Amino acid sequence: LPIEIGGAVPVLPxxxxxxxxxxxxxxxxxxxREATCRRIVRGIDQVMSLAIxxxxxxxxxxxxxxxxxxxxxxxxxxxxxxxxxxxHFYRRIISAQFDVRYLASNAEKFNEPHSQIVKAARxxxxxxxxxxxxxTEIDVPVVYHQLVDTYQSSDSEVELPDKKIMPSTxxxxxxxxxxxxxxxxxxxxxKFECRQLLESLWQCEDSLPFREPVDRLEHPDYYQLIDxxxxxxxxxxxLLGGNYETPLEFAKDMKLIFTNSKNYNTNKRSKIxxxxxxxxxxxxxxxxxxxxxxxxxxxxxxxxxxxTRQRASKELKTSLTTNA
Length: 324
Fold this sequence. Notes:
The protein folds into two domains: 24-179, Histone Acetyltransferase, Chain A (Up-down Bundle); 181-324, Histone Acetyltransferase, Chain A (Up-down Bundle). It is an all-alpha fold. 63% of the residues lie in helices and 0% in strands. It has helices at 13-19, 33-48, 68-71, 78-86, 93-110, 116-133, 140-154, 169-173, 175-180, 182-203, 222-225, 232-240, 247-264, 271-323. It is built from 14 helices and no strands. The relative contact order is 0.09. InterPro entries: Bromo_WD_repeat, Bromodomain, Bromodomain-like_sf, Bromodomain_CS.
């Protein structure tokens, strides 16, 4: 205790360590977060040395591209990802993959669909995901040129970046129209993010028992105990089929998967119960941000529409006064 009232005592390093999240063995390759993070950081360092990665090394300068903050809700860049890996910010490797995928999705959102920077973002994203996915170090320049060759074969417009690539200004010029078309684009945004999340969960080993409907032959009592069965494939089909009108509906079905599992697998020490808890925690961790961004977009859209109506009303009154 402090000697004086209102005083303080230093926190010991081991006390700080005890408060930190301790990764589970299956959340990182070989169960070793330290070694995996060091390996990925070395790979990202090599990616950042490539000319094609230059636009994605640091955050977009809002002084040069002020519109970027209105279009992209979750900015991310290679330096931020690298720092997060160095500081053990990511509890699971799947979270690092989630951030990397936003390099491409943000570029696609802000720039013209077939612009050079969008193609560069896709290559950089694929390269980083390859680094993360492999359990050993890869030859980054070799894999990079393989990816470029692949993109060239599928699209003759893909070029090696001989000049500096910057965010497209043509998209910035049409920002006012883009913001006012917010309802449809917000719908696309949250659905894209939910697909990304679902894909990340699917790749996790813990998702194996939840990918398909429960087999009636293996578990004949399941459908007697569970009123509304749900699985990842059904959710995926509903998402791709446009059956969810909001991310809240998507989240409701996802949570139903985990609730059903806990209700059926009541032994908290069982392997599948632990898998359920881990996958559910992973889902909640990312879904909170998706719903937060969706709500922010709704508020922004509502404000923009209100200002547009007010401006139109003011112009109409001015016109009527002038004509009178």
